[in-house]
Design brief:
alpha+beta, Beta-Lactamase
Length: about 600
Amino acid sequence: MIRRKHHPWSISMKLWLAITLLILVVLGGLGFTLTWLFGDFYLQQKLNSLRSEATEISAQLASVPNWSARLALLESLKLTSGTQLVLLDTQGNLVVMAGSINPQGTQGSIEWYPKSLIGGALNGWSGDLRPTDFFTQGNLEQVLSGQTISIKALPINGGAQAMLLAATPVGSNPVKGVVLLGSSPIPLQESIATFRRLILYASLIAVFLATVVSLIFAQHVTRPLGLMQRGATRMAKGDFLPIQGVTSKDEIGELAESLNSMGESLKNHMAWLSQEKNLLQGIVESISDAVIMLSIDGSILYANDSAKALWQENEAEVEERKTQIVSILQAMAEKGNQEDLVTLDIQVLQIVMAPMAENEGIRGHVAVLRDVTASLRAEKSRREFLASVTHELRTPLHLIQGYLEAIEDGVIPIDQHEEYIDLVIEESKRLARLVQNLQEINWLERGQVIQPIEIDLEDFLQDIDQRFQGRAQELGVNLEICQGSGQLVADPDQLLQVFINLLDNALRHTPPGKTVRVCMKEEPNEICLVIQDEGEGIPKEALPYIFDRFFRVNKARSRKDGGMGLGLAIVRQIVEAHGGNVRVESDMGKGTTFLIFLPK
């Protein structure tokens, strides 16, 4: 099962955080800008209102010719709530003050302040705030010069007192006085604070809603990406099932279709590669030659079953033999040899090597090793066989030719002609036996002379006893043949030939007074016939070649006494033609045992 990796910062989380931060920045900046612009706008509106009202009152006062009329006019004026009017003379003295900064104060009441200075309150006056507390001598000079001014006396540290002022001259050329209107900004500031709280609450609610919506949106957008990521992970692990659950028709849907198409293509390609690999592996494994793939550092990357059999994979000496083979291959690779013939113990190997090339260089080598021991041995055996046949034929032919030429030339006296003619006849018989033996071996190899029937072993062994007891007595050898029982399916003539060849050798090579034994062992699926003698034995180094044609253990022995070396070859051919096998065991000075295994 494919486990999903939980990343601390998944794409869904990143997208959600990005949208949330964007909303926070936008709403925060918008709220700050709106509150700042709103506060400044309302303060400026209030100043403009005070300025207009002061200008209007100044125009009305200027139209009146004397101060008594002006005072009566002031009593009839209705000031804006929270606005205080101060009338100053040209010297800055407070003449009249009407209205109140406090909206709950008395509207239209007039208080007289003869001979008061405008700067007194700024120097320590601690009464209620008045517009004259923020109106300086410099402001007075500006107004007397004919200007209408607005003053925003706001606190710097948030703890001082504040006032909004508007001052305008009464009349012109000359200026008869100054109209000063003042209003507290506290109501505006409270309205602005309320507006800011509303903006903050609305922003928090908007951020919460936007966070929830952005989270849902991020999950909705990234869900197909997660499905595709898990699908790509499955494909990387060899599972090419199509990605399910992506139904959108946008770029993400097209990407999912592309991934599914790629997965199907990879699946087909992997199936094709698997088939090619199995085919190639089947071909390589079926090759009888050993195939070894070496890396550039000499380690074995691949070896088929024939190669493992070559270094005897199931034997104890596998490491040593494998090391020898790898060392030979490495030496060939270093020398650049592509073909060589090497001898490994008793095996002769023909090695063909080729480099495995890649774009970056040689990656390793492939070597094919063929065991040519059997073919070389067969070739040697063929040459030895031809030489032996030639030798065996040449010797009697030369004798026959020599005797006949001597008789013809009169070298041999007439009274000895009969003796030499007998020798010629005997040599010709020996030639006939040689040809017959060779013909029998050829027939046996072709499987054309075996006519198996059911043989009673008791009768067969009794027949052997009768045939060879006389020969054994002539040689002074004791012949012991056990009593047999049971049935055997074989060719009686060919089986008799086996015993004739083996017993003849056993009797000839056993000294007088010694014993030759013939026994029988019955196994569940086969019969084992044993011919055992107490002769001089066979050397250990000659045992592997004892059944070869024309092989004689003692080559110094005469052909008359030692035979032609075809008897045991014929024995092996007959036994193998019956589906059995023959084995020999021998100890020098103790005797030789031939074991014949024949299926029932």
